[in-house]
């Protein structure tokens, strides 16, 4: 089967890889973003119907491990900082103080994001 899937142009036939690429390009030209959103939604719904919580926990765990293997402390600090800043900007008009603590004594989202990023970086350092 490998030979069938990897045909070259010596026998004047297109390989499956080339056929797939061309088909994808044609489909892309004929459909808009809404089409892809719809098939993505349908695929997500079908997956949800066919898998339980354990499936999603497992793929989440594997994705987290792969991300952890591929990124260093700085990555986690950066995404924690960016997440905190984004949340602070989202709620900036609702929040007179985006520093360490709000007037109600609670930590700001920005501070929580920064601390979360730092904690994850420390956790990663301890596991190496």
Helices and strands, with pairings:
Elements: H1 2-5, H2 16-30, H3 33-50, H4 53-70, H5 73-90, H6 109-127
Structure commentary:
The chain is mainly α. Helix content is 72%, strand content 0%. It has helices spanning 2-5, 16-30, 33-50, 53-70, 73-90, 109-127. It is elongated, with a radius of gyration of 23 Å. It has 6 helices and no strands.
What are the defining features of this structure?
single chain; 128 residues; mainly alpha; disordered N terminus; 6 helices
Tell me the radius of gyration. Answer: 23 Å
> What is the molecular shape?
elongated
Count up the helices: 6
Uncertain stretches: 1-7, 96-100
Strand content: under 5%
- The total beta strand count reads 0
Profile the largest sheet.
none
What's the rounded overall pLDDT mean?
Answer: 82
Which structural class do the helices and strands define? Answer: mainly alpha
Assign a percent range to the helix content. Answer: over 70%
H/E order of the elements?
HHHHHH
Query: What's the end-to-end separation, in Å?
Result: 43 Å
In short:
This protein is mainly α. The chain has helices spanning 2-5, 16-30, 33-50, 53-70, 73-90, 109-127. It is elongated.
């Amino acid at each position: 089967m490998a030979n069938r899937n990897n045909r070259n142009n010596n026998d004047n036939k297109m390989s499956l890889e080339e056929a797939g690429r061309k088909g994808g390009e044609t489909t892309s030209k004929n459909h808009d973003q809404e089409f892809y959103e719809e098939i993505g939604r349908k695929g997500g719904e079908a997956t949800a119907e066919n898998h339980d919580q354990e499936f999603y926990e497992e793929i989440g765990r594997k994705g987290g491990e792969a991300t952890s293997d591929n990124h260093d402390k700085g990555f986690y600090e950066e995404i924690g900082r960016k997440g905190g800043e984004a949340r602070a900007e989202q709620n900036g008009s609702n929040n007179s103080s985006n520093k360490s603590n709000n007037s109600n004594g609670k930590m700001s989202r920005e501070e929580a994001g920064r601390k979360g990023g730092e904690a994850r970086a420390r956790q990663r350092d301890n596991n190496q």
